Every structure is written in C-alpha cells, then in structure tokens.
Amino acid sequence: MEPELTSSTDTRESSNTADGPRSSLPPVTGLSGTVGPDRRFVLHWALDPAYQDYEIHESTVDPSNTHKATQAMSPRTSNPLTARPTPLRYGVRGRTADGALGPFGNAVEVLVGSSGGTVTVTEEAFTLPTTSGGGGETPGRPRFPGDLIPMHWKLTTTLGQVEGKPLEIWPDGRPTGDDDPGKLSTYVHPDHWRLTDEQHRWGIKITCPAEGNTTENSDNTRWELRGLNKAGTRNEEFDLVDDAPILDTEVCVLGLERNHAVLSQIHGQKPDGRTNDDLTVWRAEPNDGEPTYSLWITKGNTAHGHLVDDKVPYGQVITIGFRPANDRVRYAYNGRVLNYEMQADYSKKNFYRAGLYLQVKGGRQSTGTIILYKAQITWR
User: Fold this and answer.
1) What pTM was estimated for this model as a whole?
2) Burial level of 370, CB count in 10 A (0-12/13-18/19+)?
3) Which domains are present in the chain?
4) Most CB atoms closer than 10 Å: which of 140, 141, 146, 219?
5) How many C-beta atoms lie closer than 10 Å to residue 48's C-beta?
6) Residue-wise over 333-342: b if at least 16 C-beta within 10 A, else e?
7) Quick check: 336 and 172 in contact, CB under 8 A?
8) What is the per-residue pLDDT across 117-135, written as a single tens digit (0 to 9) for each?
C-alpha cells in the first residue's frame, strides 16, 4: 500500500454526490508526473475554475480503498513508493464548492523501480474498480454504513442488556452476551448509525444520546469505533515506535447540544501498567451562542492542550489525524502536519478510537450528531 502523503493534502474518503459524478463538469486535464531517485511520485494537473479541490486515486494496490488524498492545489507528492514489476494507476477528478464531482481525466501509469521510475499518461480515462465494502467506493448508493469504512474496527454503542458492557458490533458478527447484532459491514441502526447523503456525499450519520449504556470505566456515552488488527479479528495495541500505525479521520459535526465531543483519540496504558486512559484526543467544544465549535487537542488529562481552530462551523467537513512515532505524537489537520507534538514515552499498548464519544455537558436528554466519512488506520 502506498505510504502516507508528505504534501499539503487532506485525506477525504472518495465519494459521489447522490447522483454520481456530474456529467456537465469538465474532466481534469494537463496531467503529468515524475518519479525521482527517492521513488517519490510528483503528480501535476491543470487547475480548473470549476473546482474547489481535487481527489487523487490509485486503483492497483488496493481496489477497495483507492482514495489517496484531496487537495486544492497541484502538484501532489507521495512518500517513497515500493518498487514493483507492474505499474500503479492514478486518476484525478475535481470537486466543486457544493460537493459535486466531475469526471476523471486520463489515467496515469507509474512504473516504480529501485531508484526511480517512469510515468505514462494514457489515452483512456481513469475508472474506479467496481468493488464495495472495506472503505472503497461503491458506484451509486452504498448499501450499508459499513461500505464506507474498512473492517479493521469494531463499534461500541450505547445499547446492550448488561450495564457496563455496551453492545459491540464486530466485523465477524460475534455476539455480546445475549445480544447478536450481526456483522459491522451490514449493521444499521435507524437512530444512531445510518447512511446519509445530506452533505452532497455519502457518509455515516452518527447520533449519540447522552443517556445509555457506557463502558465500565466511563460515565459518558459513545457510538465509537475501536481499532482492531488488519484482519479485524481481535483487539490490537501498538507502542509509539517509528513504524506505529497512523490514523486519518474525516468528519462533519452537525450539532452537540452543549456537549463536548471526542472525535478521535489514542487510548493508552498508564505508567502503573494496569489501567488505560485517553492519551490524546481531538475534542470539539461548542462556542456558546454561536453556530461554531472550538477544536482542541488534549494532552493526557489536560483538555486544552493545544487549540487548533477556535471557530469551526457546524456542517463543515474537517480531516484530523494522528502521526505517532518515537515516543511522541504529531497531528494532521486538513491536510497539513501541525507544528505541535506531545511527548508520550510512558504510554504503551495504545489503540485508536474514532466516531462520537460524548462528554456530557448538556443534560441526559441531549444528543450529539456527526457525519463520519473516513476512519482509516494505515500500518507502516
């Protein structure tokens, strides 16, 4: 799989509008590229005033997860690619300010060698593989929320018959006690976990009530994904070493009703080696009387470790990410790595969470609602 980007990009999950790409829009033109001795692929295209930003896809390595980045400007630069005997195949398409997608331009083939590579712009348009599930794109309407995320997660809910043991939805459909909810790939809840295209693209609409079943060590409710191993068969933890996995999440906060919300987090083991707690969190806090919220990075138990954005409008899509390595954590926001990091040499057995974890401030009758577009762990 292609490594994480180094250019100024965000990482939006690929998606159509409700009607698919808009045929009246122009294809992307002016495609070209180079591969340097370091095996980094630099992809160029001509900017078009019809588009606000551009999606970059590669369809060879993982046909179920083609989307590599979304960015406003050309070019796009990758991390070093792996040498391979067959070419990679790239495509670029534009996205308008209202979220409509244009058609792809010509496919670009990249043959990567040990110390460079060759780039060929073909004469045919790039097309997406017709796969579904596992975080790839399904042409037209996806069938289930699970079509939009990879199956290396389980879902923790506010449901369940045993207090302190909320219902978990696993990729393989294993039951939680007497509850048997089925597989995450096909799971739907009409109030809490369902498809929506209300922002001109398909996403998972998550509504979390402040009242409901909670995990044993928390008084707060969640509809939140918990990271598993690549196969989606067991819980998996990681240390903050150089090749630690990274997480990219794309989310749109619709409303919080005075509640604070954790949108994404690293959970880790405390120095005593016996208990776990939040290591660092992307946290949304409503701005009183305004249609905006403040976006914070927490530092351990310090809720206000670093202010990232003090006025994010409700309904705006943002991308947030963790870049752990070498006993520290760095952070990505809307396609750029922030000039802020947290030392965490004490934290072991870490794991990711993404979704909606309410920090209840608005009373037990309140809720919070987000749309989740992407939750992707990448192993390096």
Assistant:
1) 0.68
2) buried
3) 32-125 (2.60.40.10), 145-378 (2.60.120.200)
4) 146
5) 16
6) bbbebeeebb
7) no
8) 999 999 999 988 764 444 4
